[in-house]
Amino acid sequence: MRSVPLVLSALLIVAVPLTAAKGLELSRDQERRLEGGEVVVVDELPPGGMVVSGSQGGTGLSLVHASPEAVWQVLVNYAHHPGMYPRVVRAQVLKSDSEHALVRYVIGLGPFSFGFHVENYLDEGRRRIVWRLAQEWPNDLFRDGWGYWQIDLRPTGVLVTYGMAARTVLPAFLTRRAERDGLVETLKAVRERAERLL
After folding, report:
1. Percent of the chain beyond pLDDT 70?
2. In what order do the strands lie in the sheet with 157-168?
3. C-alpha count within 13 angstroms, C-beta hemisphere, residue 136
4. 3-state SS class at 8
């Protein structure tokens, strides 16, 4: 008789669609792709910023076969963000406590490098990090930027959601593909690092 409740529980788990932070609904195809190990990107800019002409970004999702704590550890280990975010060659924590971190990043583009500053607001209880470009600090290429990380426990691991939006001094048509590709590359790097911590 114990097996009947287990079978019913398993059926319910399979039947319940995956949803992302803030009620982002996924199609059956997107759910299938997530379960198959793909990173899914949707054209949904995160809340928290002023969307104007030239704003680019989206929301990426990935299933990670690691604990929420392992994913959290990867996300808040700022000194190791080079290689996690595309083109980031340096990350320096300027201020930090349990709920906030100001981080200076340097990105490399060919022989050039550009710096920018990000305010991270951490809510470990909700497994959420909200970030924003620090406007009062120098930000070479960026006019604005904002986003979030969300970690949600699922039966097969954790669903990691990364939403980001940015406006740069470059024309949007030059950055559109790089930002979408960056969502995928970043989530793959987070997944790889978190799964290595097992």
Report:
1. 77
2. 40-42, 56-64, 157-168, 142-154, 128-133, 112-123, 100-109, 88-97
3. 2
4. helix
Q: What digits encode the pLDDT tens for the residues 31-44?
A: 999 999 999 999 87
Please give the backbone phi and psi of residue 126, each rounded to the nearest 5 degrees, phi first: -95, 0
The confidence score (pLDDT) of residue 54 equals: 52
User: Rounded distance, CA 88 to CA 60, Å?
Assistant: 19
User: At 176, phi and psi to the nearest 5?
Assistant: -55, -55
The number of beta carbons lying within 10 Å of the beta carbon of residue 47 is 14
Backbone angles phi, psi at 34, to 5 degrees: -60, -50
Strand boundaries in 134-177, DSSP class E: 142-154, 157-168
**Unique residue bearing structure tokens 């600090």:** 137
Burial 24-38 (b: 16+ CB within 10 A, else e): bebeeebbebbeeeb
Q: What is the pTM of this model?
A: 0.82
Domains of the chain in start order, with CATH, are 19-196 (3.30.530.20)
Annotate 38-99 with DSSP letters as a single string.
PPEEES-PPSSS---TT-EEEEEEEEESS-HHHHHHHHH-GGG-BTTBTTEEEEEEEEEETT
Of 101, 134, 96, 130, residue with least CA distance to 115:
134
